[in-house]
Write a structure and sequence with these properties.
The protein is mainly β. Helices cover 13% and strands 52% of the residues.
Length: 94
């Protein structure tokens, strides 16, 4: 008998302050990477799906982003700036 399946892993890459597209509030957004790996006898062997998303901590809205957008958000977060994936603007304090 061969036992195979999948297992999901969730990585939090960054926390960004953005204006949410859904609720319009300036709030923290988590940038997450979800990796699904093929397993054989409960041992993860190789990833076959990788997805990136941002999630608003205020309203819970989740938005899928591409790998390039996720890398750009991480780079801007490290530099002190954060811009959203689809026209979201960073929150600037008055």
């Amino acid at each position: 008998m061969i036992v195979f399946g999948t297992k999901g892993y969730l990585y939090q890459l960054a926390i960004l302050t953005l204006v949410c597209d859904r609720c319009g509030n300036p709030a923290a957004h988590t940038l997450r990477k979800r990796v699904t790996k093929f397993t054989l006898f409960f041992v993860p062997l190789f990833p076959f799906s990788t997805k990136y998303a941002t999630q608003c901590t205020f309203c819970g809205a989740e938005q899928q982003v591409t790998r390039e957008q996720a890398e750009q958000l991480q780079a801007q977060e490290a530099g002190g700036q954060a811009y959203g994936p689809s026209g979201q603007q960073p929150y600037q304090r008055p």
